Amino acid sequence: MSRFWSPGVEALAPYTPGEQPKDRTFVKLNTNENPYGPSPRAIEAIRAATGDALRLYPDPTAAALRTAIGARFGLGADHVFAGNGSDEVLAHAFHAFFRGKGELLFPDVSYSFYPTYCTLYGIPFRQVPLDADFSLNTEALAGPCAGIVIANPNAPTGIALPPAAIERVLQANPDVVVLVDEAYIDFGADSMAPLVARYDNLLVVQTFSKSRSLAGLRVGFALGQPALIEGLTRIKDSFNSYPLDRLALAGALAAWEDTAWFDETRHKVMADRARLTAGLQARGFSVLPSAANFVFASPTGLGAAEMLQALRERGILVRHFAKGRTRDWLRISIGTAADCDRLLSEIDAIKAA
Ligand SMILES: *Cc1c(COP(=O)(O)O)cnc(C)c1O
């Protein structure tokens, strides 16, 4: 607390990102980063953009990137919004669509940035409990509300919903925005993007951080009908006209166009997810069915906190959300095949100790 803070700053509940250690090298399976690195074409494009042109501001409309993204979905650039990571896109969406309208609905176990944005923007919210198996009964997302947020696949569970289930939520709540956070969509679930042209209340948010391995570049985007995109743009242009710098615009466009690299790396992650799931199950873990680049797994013998600590001592970082229903579970990002093997052998060593 400082006497210089504006009212409300002390009451914020900031998001805690996963640890980014600086002191030693860990096998980092704690922040859902992609182990394979970005497209070499993206690196090349970033290099080419590094020069005297950096004295000039970037395109404030990100037109080339938005056009390329939209084209992949059969949508015009007027259906695409780009931001500095999808976290910023989410923040602008909360600001633009959910304020001053009553309670926002989202599941009790989901991305922990949602309550943080609600607190920042003064949005009341109601967390709808997932079922005991962590699945989402979408019928429960109904009734008068300011809007609905669904992460699909959900985080940190990894469980995916079929588009038809989310389509019923869109139909049952036609007067509010239904935001579908598809940060992990490219690892095996079906996107709502094909429904954007049909539903004026649908906003789909995706990121380059996970499936395109560009967490460090900070690029995310939203797909929606032009009225929603215009709302987001009004917020953006009242906040920061240039959220994407020249390097981000160049790198993201090249990464988007390198579909071969994208497909090769995401399929490796999916194959290793299947192997890691089987390996963890063989060691007594409960593992939820994941369509993401991580698994949510509950150890036996040791508690989740003890397992996290034992792995940390052996040089492996995983993530634990130590409160409430997720207390017995660990979120483990899918690394390389070698990372997954190392994790399994360290678990064997921990159990033998
Ligand atoms: C990682 C993640 C994001 C944010 O990603 P950015 O790096 O900000 O693009 C958004 N939603 C969920 C559910 C995530 O896991």
Keywords:
353 residues, alpha/beta, Aspartate Aminotransferase, domain 1, 2 domains, three-stranded antiparallel beta sheet, binds pyridoxal-5'-phosphate
Mean pLDDT, all residues: 96
H/E order of the elements?
EHHEHEHEEHEEEHHHEEHEEH
Distance between the termini: 45 Å
Query: How would you classify the helix and strand content by structural class?
Result: alpha/beta
Domains, number? 2
- Bound small molecules, deduplicated: pyridoxal-5'-phosphate
At the fourth level of CATH, the homologous superfamily of the largest domain is Type I PLP-dependent aspartate aminotransferase-like (Major domain)
Could you name the CATH class of the largest domain? Alpha Beta
Please report which band the strand proportion falls in: under 5%, 5-15%, 15-25%, 25-35%, 35-45% or over 45%.
5-15%
Q: Which regions contain 5 or more consecutive residues with pLDDT less than 50?
A: none
CATH topology of the largest domain: Aspartate Aminotransferase, domain 2
GO molecular function, one term: pyridoxal phosphate binding
InterPro entries: Aminotrans_II_pyridoxalP_BS, Aminotransferase_I/II_large, HisP_aminotrans, HistidinolP_aminotransfase, PyrdxlP-dep_Trfase, PyrdxlP-dep_Trfase_major, PyrdxlP-dep_Trfase_small
Modified residues (N6-(pyridoxal phosphate)lysine): 210
Enzyme class: transferase
